[in-house]
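About this split. The held-out portion is used to measure sequence recovery: a designer receives only the structure tokens and must propose an amino acid at every position. Recovery is the fraction of positions where the proposal matches the reference. Here is one held-out target exactly as it appears in the evaluation file.
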């Protein structure tokens, strides 16, 4: 029998794993405090440097907030999309990852959100989408348009009832905008882009209101393609086209 080589695990990684598990399982709640460094040393049977390295990792992941010399111990933080945002942003900076791949993921995610929202949305959530659309129409060509646009997509994401979709939609949307922000600012006719976006949102809202998830999904993906595809190299656009007309 042959065995595979094992990967050495450092002591601080075991400390991180145990604390992460306690937080994720709810045994330690947001706002509560971990023990002091000295107590953690005793509990885990490790050195002070190991405890501090583990706390640095946990703080970088925004699981705890640790202040040097605080006798109360590190504070456990509530779950936040900030760490996911940082990871996705870092991933998009990798050489093998481009705007085409990120936009492809957004088209998949947002199309699915429309599909679900058409069936699961409440009347109140539908009113939120309609209010955001009216704000976009009223402020076409101003900074308020972008805020209303974000409010519309946030309302759609919430209507799915899935917190993972809400978080991922926010993160991926922000990364896409970050990657092409300069291009949008210097677009030849930003007002034309906004008018096109408004028309697409109007069609999508009608489909969601009618409960036609398949149509809302197709329209939502087409809207993203029409709005952003010109900023993607041709080889990247080829990865987007199979999603046009797809329902899931």
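Reference sequence for scoring:
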């Amino acid at each position: 029998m042959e065995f595979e080589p094992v990967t050495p695990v450092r002591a601080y990684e075991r400390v991180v794993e145990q604390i992460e598990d306690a937080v994720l399982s709810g045994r330690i709640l947001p706002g509560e405090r971990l023990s002091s460094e000295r107590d953690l040393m005793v509990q885990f049977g490790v050195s002070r440097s190991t405890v501090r390295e583990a706390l640095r990792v946990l703080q970088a992941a925004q699981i705890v907030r640790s202040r040097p010399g605080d006798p109360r111990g590190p504070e456990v933080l509530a779950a936040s999309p900030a760490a996911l945002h940082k990871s996705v942003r870092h991933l998009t900076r990798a050489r093998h990852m481009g705007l085409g791949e990120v936009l492809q993921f957004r088209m998949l995610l947002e199309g699915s959100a429309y599909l679900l929202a058409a069936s699961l949305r409440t009347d109140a959530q539908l009113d939120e989408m309609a209010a955001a659309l009216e704000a976009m129409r009223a402020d076409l060509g101003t900074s308020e348009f972008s805020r209303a646009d974000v409010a519309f997509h946030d309302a759609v994401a919430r209507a799915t009832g899935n917190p993972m979709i809400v978080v991922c939609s926010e993160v991926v949307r922000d990364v896409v905008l970050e990657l092409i922000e300069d291009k949008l600012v210097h677009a030849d006719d930003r007002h034309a882009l906004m008018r096109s976006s408004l028309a697409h949102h109007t069609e999508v809202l009608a489909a969601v209101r009618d409960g036609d998830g398949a149509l809302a999904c197709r329209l939502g993906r087409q809207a993203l393609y029409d709005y952003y595809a010109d900023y993607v190299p041709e080889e990247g656009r080829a990865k987007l086209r199979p999603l046009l007309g797809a329902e899931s």
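Annotator remark: The mean pLDDT is 86.
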